[in-house]
Amino acid sequence: GYSSDADTRTVDTHITRLRSKLGEAGEMIRTVRGYGYKLELL
Fold first, then answer.
1. What is the tally of structural domains in the chain?
2. Domain range spanning residue 16?
3. How many Å apart are CA 9 and CA 25, to the nearest integer?
4. Alpha-carbon distance values, 29 to 2, 8, 35 (Å)
5. Between the CA of residue 23 and those of 20, 32, 33, what are the distances in Å?
6. Residue 22: which residues within 8 A CB-CB, separation 6 or more?
7. What's the alpha-carbon Rg for the chain, to the nearest Å?
8. What is the dihedral of CA 42, 16, 14, 30, to 10 degrees?
């Protein structure tokens, strides 16, 4: 089967690419340790 670590890294990779494509707006995607990610709108 699949490892949960692989699934976690997949999400991290997608978030990294999304932040890159959004440029400065990518800074609105925040990492919440132990939980995941959140979008902070200004």
1. 1
2. 4-39
3. 22
4. 27, 17, 13
5. 5, 20, 22
6. 28, 29
7. 12
8. -30
**Dihedral of CA 16/17/22/24: which sign?**
positive
pLDDT for 9 equals 84
Q: What is the 3-state secondary structure (H, E, C) of the chain?
A: CCCHHHHHHHHHHHHHHHHHHHHHHHHHEEEECCCEEEECCC
Residues ≥6 apart with Cβ < 8 Å to 7: none
Residues 6+ apart with CB under 8 A from 33: none
Read off the pLDDT of residues 1-42 as tens digits, 9 standing for 90 and up.
566 666 668 999 999 999 999 999 999 999 999 999 999 997
